[in-house]
């Protein structure tokens, strides 16, 4: 496990690599963001952006999503994985916004997680990106990087990873660190074929050292 000094050094190096890391889901308001993040589960941001480019022209408000049939909405997002369930959740979310929140997206994370299709990760993204409230959203990239580096333990749950990162990272850096860890995992420390040989964090990374040692052993044979 990395100590606090090593974690700080890793975060600084990642910041140098991705100084402009940001949310890559296109949106123009908090409502669009929660829809986009909900659609992004088990799907790439690039594909979501292709779909929402047309979706957000057609649907502007919660009422708009409820004025069409479920089948029509499903057809609008058909290219996205789990589109049937996501379409149902979108309409349920819009209904709940209108009935309980006067059509406005709540700013509180706990309130957000009451909305259909909105889990803790989605809520953290929304409060951080839309409302500038410090939060760390642990997606697959953040979880993978944190465990590979040894910031967290392999057996830690997603919630445990989030709590560990919140303890280890200053609150003022939660949101920006979340984006940088995502970029690092998405574009460098990938799930398949991570770029260990050129990684500036290799000296800290237990997983990277194992991979490089394994490759060295193969080359020696």
Low-confidence stretches: none
Structural class: mainly alpha
Binned, the helix content reads 55-70%
Portion of residues in beta strands equals: under 5%
The number of strands is 0
The SSE string, one letter per element, is HHHHHHHHHHHH
* Main beta sheet: none
Give a brief outline of the structure:
The two termini are 31 Å apart.
Keyphrases for this structure?
single chain, 221 residues
Topology record:
Blueprint: H1 4-17, H2 30-39, H3 45-58, H4 62-66, H5 70-76, H6 83-100, H7 109-112, H8 120-129, H9 140-149, H10 158-168, H11 174-187, H12 206-220
Helix pairs in contact: 1-11, 2-8, 5-6, 9-11
Could you describe the 3D structure shown?
The chain has 221 residues and is an all-alpha fold. The chain has twelve helices and no strands. Helix 2 (30-39) packs antiparallel against helix 8 and helix 5 (70-76) packs across helix 6. The mean pLDDT is 94.
